[in-house]
Write a structure and sequence with these properties.
This protein is mainly beta. The chain folds into three domains: 86 residues, conserved putative lor/sdh protein from methanococcus maripaludis s2 fold, CATH 2.40.420.20; 73 residues, Beta Barrel (OB fold (Dihydrolipoamide Acetyltransferase, E2P)); 69 residues, Efflux pump adaptor protein, beta barrel domain (Elongation Factor Tu (Ef-tu), domain 3). The chain contains two helices and 22 strands. Strands 2, 3, 12, 13, 14, 15, 16, 17, 18, 19 and 20 form an eleven-stranded antiparallel sheet that branches. A four-stranded antiparallel sheet has the order 4-11-9-6, with no helix packed on it. Strands 8-7-5-10 form a four-stranded antiparallel sheet, with no helix packed on it. The radius of gyration is 42 Å and the shape is elongated. Belongs to the membrane fusion protein (MFP) (TC 8.A.1) family. Pfam families: Beta-barrel_RND_2 (PF25954), BSH_RND (PF25917), YknX_C (PF25989). GO terms for molecular function: efflux transmembrane transporter activity. This is Efflux transporter, RND family, MFP subunit.
Length: 311
């Protein structure tokens, strides 16, 4: 029993000695001084000077801005004539085909007005003018009336392109407005055109206005019924200040940008914007020609930030 007590006493002394050694090591080594030194290093680094922010810039210059309206049109013959039957009945013959050239008084077909128990002489339908067949809505054997055209004849002298524009664009389009047309059939060619007519009323269902353009096609490549892509050239401003839209920042409704002054510091400038064309925005006030505008990195700026311009 006495021997067991002695072993416990010796173990207790060993634990006490270990604790004393550890305490001495903490006092001598003091590991917390590394945390303090590290904190001091961060502060020292911050106190070395202002932090530079890398940006990309451009010089503000005068440019031309051209606003456009893009849409799809339809090539039509404004001088086309619809041909009607003089009687109701059955279309017994149809002597022409779509796209065929016909002469004045040429027979287009015949209509039999006979009914059950009553026989009438067939009515002959003739072309009132020379031209090209643009439309044949009925086939032989169809019942026709005097209210529906049997055929449409186009003179194909001056083709027009009609298209609808949205109500918001009406104020920017007028007689003489220039346009460019492109067709899938002629990928390498652009056709010039200009507005020659505007509808006096809007389409109440679509809130659009129909306009007509005169097409310049001296070689006669364009055919009635084709569908071109149309670019209307509306407002144009020459030699105005314009910057990339992406360089603008907003605080509420106030637009502003950052420029770089002669000391390499960011300078905040409130600006007023004008016409917007694609990714360009007109600046009416707030900038002058030659200002160094920050176009990348401006969201990191504050007034007086030191900047490093990337080439």
């Amino acid at each position: 029993m006495k021997q067991h007590h002695s072993k416990k006493h010796i173990a207790g002394l060993i634990v006490l000695i270990v604790l004393i050694i550890l305490a001495t090591a903490l006092v001598v080594i003091n590991p917390f001084q590394y945390l303090k030194n590290n904190k001091a290093t961060v502060v020292a680094t911050t106190d070395e000077g202002p932090v530079e922010v890398s940006v990309r810039v451009m010089d503000v210059q005068l440019v031309d801005l051209q606003n456009t309206i893009v849409g799809n049109g339809n090539v039509v013959d404004p001088s086309s004539i619809d041909v009607y039957s003089e009687v109701n009945g059955t279309l017994t013959t149809l002597s022409v085909s779509l796209g065929q050239r016909v002469e004045k008084d040429q027979v287009l077909g015949t209509v039999d007005p006979s009914r059950a128990g009553v026989t009438y002489k067939q009515s002959v339908i003739k072309a009132p003018v020379a031209g090209t067949i643009l439309l044949l809505p009925f086939v032989q054997g169809s019942n026709v009336s005097m209210q529906a055209p049997i055929a449409r004849i186009g003179l194909l002298e001056d083709l027009e392109v009609v298209l609808d524009i949205a109500e918001r664009h009406i104020g920017t389009v007028g007689i003489g407005t220039k346009a460019e047309l492109s067709f899938k059939a002629f990928d390498d060619q652009v056709f010039q055109a200009e507005v020659i007519r505007l509808s006096p009323v809007l389409n109440p269902a679509t809130r659009t206005l129909e306009i007509a353009l005169k097409l310049q096609d001296p070689e006669g490549k364009v055919k009635s019924g084709m569908f071109p892509s149309v670019v209307l050239f509306t407002e144009r401003l020459e030699q105005v200040l314009a910057i990339p839209r992406s360089s603008l920042l907003y605080l509420g409704n106030q637009a502003y940008v950052y420029t770089v002054d002669s000391n390499g510091l960011a300078q905040k400038k409130n600006v007023e914007v004008g016409m917007q064309v694609d990714d360009k925005v007109q600046i009416t006030t707030g900038l002058v020609v030659g200002d160094t505008l920050i176009v990348q990195g401006q969201s990191l700026m504050t007034e007086g930030t030191l900047v490093r311009i990337l080439q």
